[in-house]
UniProtKB/TrEMBL annotation:
Domain of life (superkingdom): Eukaryota
GO MF, one example: DNA binding
Organism: Absidia glauca
Gene3D superfamilies: Centromere DNA-binding protein complex CBF3 subunit, domain 2
Protein name: Ndc10 domain-containing protein
Amino acid sequence: MLQTEPTRQAQKWSYSFHRELIGKALSSPGIRSNKKTHINCGSSARMAGNVCANVDRIRRQGRWNNTTINGAYLTNLPR
């Protein structure tokens, strides 16, 4: 009979706990950043843009308005 690991239940992290863990992960190798919980938002939006993902879909996924996504996240030249 095949044994499996017990099922783990997902735990909801508080914002402060998430921020603290990301801060520790960044400070360990000496990375300093004002952004902790949103550090990957810009790069993920740019990566999606680089593979020609639809800008409206990227905007909806990140729940950004047009000004925010164009000014902060999709900073490369128009396609």
